[in-house]
């Protein structure tokens, strides 16, 4: 019974509505369900938010046109492949990383971005707003070109983020429960061989032994974990600690928190040791690119390093995956001067 319910929770189908009659009881039921799946209880003073659903949207006191745009944003979020060859050049959807339609805690729930941005971001060393943060996902995770700022698609995606954050104060002072992909403690040693064996045993049934994922009728069922149709070398999940956090808290699908910490880190290390499309910040030289991006990003990835299994220098190539350009014009400095 618990296992069947787990799958539903991961999909977001049974996450509870914020409009329950007994709010406190609903929140406790929500937390009890997460605890049964192995997730930690909130720490003292952590902000717990149960994002609203599309069913809640039906009853919300919002303009019908806004409701339509929010639904469009949800549709884009869960089927980003409809923007294939225009804004998306791999097999990823937004919901490939942000599970449960972007609502699932410990799967980088997207509502947190709506209440904490604009903010400074170390990755590009300037203040980012929500649209620029979404643009980063298209640039790196989708290996693509973001929709124009202020475009219909960008406004729809932003509106969906804001809908999920309904009721949360801007710039909350409390730490947010379940934010991001919190990694388990890093083991003393990581092993490529152990990671490969664990990936084959625990992950390949969905993602394939070669990390190609699964597509049916031009729709992504399970995303590619590396290769031309996966995220590029600039995506957050190539950082080993980020991948370990995602894997520990969300994989295998329907069995969150079932891997031990060593397995999660070894699989992350193995996946980060595979090739993928070039980082859009590439200068033409992998070591120069590594030097420019090391402190803010690549010190946590395998980019520019020799692979343990064969000595191959990762990222030392000009392969752009499925797109005809290196970087979109959104990858640029911002000085506010």
TrEMBL record:
Name a GO molecular-function annotation: metal ion binding
Query: What is the annotated signal peptide range for this record?
Result: 1-22
Which keywords does UniProt give here? Heme, Iron, Metal-binding, Signal
Iron recorded as keyword: yes
Transmembrane ranges, per UniProt, are none
**Basic and acidic residues bias: start-end ranges:** 309-320
Name all Cytochrome c domain ranges.
68-197, 190-275
Fetch the InterPro entries from UniProt. Answer: Cyt_c-like_dom, Cyt_c-like_dom_sf, Cytochrome_c-type_DH
Chain segments carrying region Disordered: 309-337
The organism's superkingdom is given as Bacteria
Instruction: State what protein this is by name.
Output: C-type cytochrome
The organism encoding this protein is: Wenzhouxiangella limi
């Amino acid at each position: 019974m618990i296992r069947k319910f787990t799958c539903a929770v991961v999909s977001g189908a049974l996450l509870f509505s914020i409009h329950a009659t007994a709010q406190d009881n609903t929140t406790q039921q929500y937390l009890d369900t997460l605890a049964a799946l192995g997730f930690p209880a909130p720490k003292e003073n952590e902000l717990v938010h149960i994002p609203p659903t599309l069913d809640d949207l039906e009853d919300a006191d919002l303009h019908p046109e806004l409701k339509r745009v929010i639904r469009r944003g949800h549709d884009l979020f869960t089927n980003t492949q409809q923007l294939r060859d225009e804004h998306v050049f791999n097999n990823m959807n937004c919901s490939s990383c942000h599970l449960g339609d972007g609502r699932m805690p410990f799967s980088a729930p997207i509502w947190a971005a709506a209440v904490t941005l604009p903010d400074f971001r170390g990755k590009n060393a300037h203040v980012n707003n929500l649209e620029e943060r979404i643009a980063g996902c298209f640039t790196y995770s989708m290996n693509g070109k973001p929709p124009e700022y202020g475009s219909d698609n960008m406004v729809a995606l932003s509106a969906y983020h804001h809908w999920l954050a309904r009721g949360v104060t801007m710039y909350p002072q409390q730490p947010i429960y379940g934010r991001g992909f919190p990694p388990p403690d890093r083991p003393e040693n990581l092993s490529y061989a152990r990671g490969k064996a664990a990936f084959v045993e625990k992950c390949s049934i969905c993602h394939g032994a070669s990390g190609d994922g699964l597509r049916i009728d031009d729709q992504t069922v399970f995303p590619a974990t590396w290769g031309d149709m996966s995220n590029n070398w600039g995506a957050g999940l190539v950082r080993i600690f980020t991948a370990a956090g995602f894997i520990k808290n969300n994989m295998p699908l329907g069995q969150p928190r079932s891997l031990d910490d060593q397995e999660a880190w070894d699989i992350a290390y193995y996946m980060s040791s595979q090739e993928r499309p070039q980082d859009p910040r590439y200068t033409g030289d992998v070591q120069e690119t590594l030097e420019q991006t090391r402190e803010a990003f690549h010190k946590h990835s395998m980019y520019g390093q020799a692979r343990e299994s064969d000595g191959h220098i990762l990222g030392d190539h000009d392969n752009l995956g499925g797109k005809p350009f290196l970087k979109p014009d959104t990858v640029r400095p911002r000085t506010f001067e």
